Amino acid sequence: MEPAIRAQGLRKTYPLSAKQRKLERTDQRHKTAVENLSFEVVKGEIYGLLGPNGAGKTTTLRMLAALIKPDSGDAWINGASIVSDPMGVRKTIGFLTSELKLEEVFSADYLFDFFSELHHIEPAKRDARKKSLFARFGIEAFAQTKVADLSTGMKQKVSLAVSVAHDPSVIIFDEPTNGLDVLTAKTVTDFLLELKGEGKTILLSTHIFSLVEKVCDRAGVIIGGRMVANGTLDELTGDRSLEDAFFDMYRMTVGDAS
Ligand SMILES: Nc1ncnc2c1ncn2[C@@H]1O[C@H](COP(=O)(O)OP(=O)(O)OP(=O)(O)O)[C@@H](O)[C@H]1O
């Protein structure tokens, strides 16, 4: 069976400005954010990309969501190539990040309709989906409130609802619980498990071990832009905790963490 996500040899470099070269204490004109990254996500599973800050997680997810192009390599989401069919990729995925970027002057109701229209969802289907998602997240009472006037938790719930307005079969989620209070973080993790229950495929990035342990079927450890391990949690950890296994991998890849 074709995996829902297949990444093959992804590579991405960024040009470094003089200021960035100084900050990074390097003479190199380019920073390699992701190097020769390959992995697969099976239909219906939750796969976690686990890595420290700057490991290349966001860059990887942005390539897979067809927001930026790889320098080389390719990836296929439900068979659509991120290089040759980015529109096909965008149709089939929902992309979400905990860095909220909802337009603050609009209401949840307006934003949901706007994104549904972008995805050519018929009004009757849109309204039924909006009703169920707004009920799921307790958004109904705030549906007409400007985003600017919502609490951080409610903003995140609106982001969640809007990002799955088109009922995507693959959901790509960058740092789903970063910066959220414990209650909102729980809403997010519960929702991820619900989506999995509906047969959706989920790829998330995180640096939080407990999130991987709680929701992921398999995970890939990414350090310095490279995949250093990939497998089920048992395969990754053996008889250690995920945290201990990660620090062993970190030590072997870059040396002592402290
Ligand atoms: N636009 C850019 N220009 C230059 N370097 C960049 C750019 N974006 C990211 N980088 C660098 O590429 C590397 C990978 O960054 P990326 O954001 O993908 O990592 P990450 O694992 O998501 O980390 P974080 O959790 O800190 O966001 C980092 O060293 C980062 O500084």
UniProtKB/TrEMBL annotation:
GO molecular function, a single term: ATP binding
Principal localisation: membrane
ABC transporter domain sequence ranges: 5-249
Coiled coil: none
The keyword ATP-binding appears for this protein: yes
Localisation: Cell membrane
Gene3D superfamilies xrefs: P-loop containing nucleotide triphosphate hydrolases
Record keywords: Antibiotic resistance, ATP-binding, Nucleotide-binding, Transport
Record SUPFAM superfamilies: P-loop containing nucleoside triphosphate hydrolases
PROSITE patterns assigned to the protein according to its UniProt record, in alphabetical order: ABC_TRANSPORTER_2
Signal peptide: none
Entry membrane topology: Peripheral membrane protein
UniProt family annotation: Belongs to the ABC transporter superfamily.
Full protein name: Sodium ABC transporter ATP-binding protein
Organism whose genome encodes this protein: Raoultibacter timonensis
